[in-house]
Amino acid sequence: MGIHKERLDQIVNLAQEMVQQGFKMAGEVAARSQAMNGLWESLQIARAQHREDLETARETQEKIDSMRLDFAKKANPFNNWLEGAREDVLDMFVCHSIEEVNALITVHEEFKACLPEFHQIFLDIQQLQQEIDTIASFGSNPYTAVEVDTLGNMWNELLQLIPQRDKDLQEALVRENKKDELRKTFANHANWFANWTSEEQKKIAESTMGPDLTLNDQLALLEDLLQEVESYRPQYEELENLNKIIQDEVIFNNPYCKHTMESLNVSWEELHNSVARQKNAVENQILVRDSKGINEEQVKEMKNAFDHFDKNEDGRLDHFEFRACLVSLGYNVDTEEHLVNHSEGDRHSDFERVLQMVDPEMTGQVTFEAFMDFMTQEASDMDTAEQIIASFRVLAGDKRYILPDEIRRELPSHQAEYCISRMAPYEGHDAVPGSLDYLSFANALYGQSDL
């Protein structure tokens, strides 16, 4: 512009010289020179105005840019919060206790409490966008793709989802309260039932412990107990129905009860089996008593001895417990847990014989019934041997030995010769020639040993 100004000044000076020198066209040149000078001044004014307009436009654009950047700084975090809040409100949940539901309700209430704060943020973003729109009627925000209308739609959707979340949580709380009542009901029934089965087991044990109870008394008590147990079947079935409801409601834990239906089933079956097993044992004792001709005192002694070594109370003795029981009854048992006979070479024969009697299948277990059979057989054999010994003592005239002639005089010839041929010589200090040992003969004849 400075060069053009110099040229204009030169033209004006030339026009003035032409006027001074009186050139013919000097007036016309001067007029044109003055017009050009006027145009130059107009140009200068327009130039200054244009510069002022550009500066204003620059300042406006800077303000718009700053406002758009401020919008992006507020809109982007708010958009992220809206997306996260929407996910939280729509989040599916599965609760297994009242505490879990209450924890979710607490979180949701805290979320709702902060809504006014975020609503104000949204209003600020809306206000900022309105100010931007007032200044700039075109162009997009280079700092974010988030639009205020999108934020508005998301905000309105969130406000519509919150009541449904409230409803879902309250319904969950009602369900868990119902489940908790089911837990408490089951716990009350289960705890009572478990205590009842325990008490019934004690009654079963005590049914055979009374000192004045006969076997028939015990059997009557056990039959009453069996009827009593069966009378409680409705309570057991009610527990089963409660358990089915609990399973249908998908209830996995019960803090009010340590018992499960499985453990209660076992207790119920054990109770039935205990009564039946004890009743069967008493019936067998009565059968043995009646068939073997022994009295109840003998049966009781056998039962007390057996029960003392039945440590796990399963109605059976293993071979080691059986050995200990025999020892307590006065039988001789070697250190290898075998029964001992007179002969060292036959030390296993009596053991095998007894095991064949009490445990023919070699299961390793001896039942009380087998034990009673063995003991009554031993007692029966002993009684028979003692009767024979008493008879021979009469024939021998109360001597500890007997002579062949004394046997032949009282017994038929074939029986006399049988006895004489199998009797060992008597070796006592009072022995006489030909004396025989009828004591060892009677014991051998009826299978007696050092047992």
Spell out the blueprint of helices and strands.
Blueprint: H1 2-21, H2 26-90, H3 98-113, H4 115-135, H5 148-206, H6 215-231, H7 233-248, H8 261-292, H9 296-309, E1 316-318, H10 319-328, H11 349-358, E2 365-367, H12 368-395, H13 404-410, H14 413-422, E3 424-425, E4 436-437, H15 438-445
Antiparallel strand pairs: 1-2, 3-4
Describe this structure in words.
The chain has 451 residues and is mostly helical. The protein has helices spanning 2-21, 26-90, 98-113, 115-135, 148-206, 215-231, 233-248, 261-292, 296-309, 319-328, 349-358, 368-395, 404-410, 413-422, 438-445, and strands spanning 316-318, 365-367, 424-425, 436-437. Helix 9 crosses helix 10 (319-328) and helix 12 (368-395) packs antiparallel against helix 15 (438-445). The protein is rod-shaped.
List keywords for this structure.
two-stranded antiparallel ribbon; 15 helices; mainly alpha; 451 residues
What is the subunit organization of this protein? single chain
What percentage of amino acids are in beta strands?
under 5%
Helix content: over 70%
Gross morphology is: rod-shaped
Rounded to an integer, what's the Rg over CA atoms? 59 Å
- Tell me about the largest β-sheet: 2 strands, antiparallel
Provide the spatial order of strands within the biggest beta sheet: 1-2
